[in-house]
Amino acid sequence: MLKYIKNHMDSISGIEIYPMISLLIFFIFFVALFWWVITAKKDYIDRMSNIPLDNENEIQL
Q: Which of 25, 46, 45 is CA-nearest to residue 37?
């Protein structure tokens, strides 16, 4: 099965760029996420972390 897929992919011209593009997208996403976490304001982080503990907005069924 893998031999068939490998031979089929070898016949596609320009396919070697796709792994590089996916690695670049992956790297940029996590660098941006890391940058957002580092630069996030402390009060925003505290407010978001307390949302699960906030009982006044709880829905009563």
A: 45
- In the numeric block, which tokens belong to residue 4? 């068939």
Answer yes or no: are the C-beta atoms of 28 and 34 closer than 8 Å.
no
Give this prediction's pTM: 0.59
Full domain range(s) for residue 26 = 17-51
Whether 33 is covered by a domain: the verdict is yes
Low-confidence residues in the chain, pLDDT < 50: 61
Domain count, the chain: 1
- Degrees, nearest 5: CA angle 16-20-23: 145
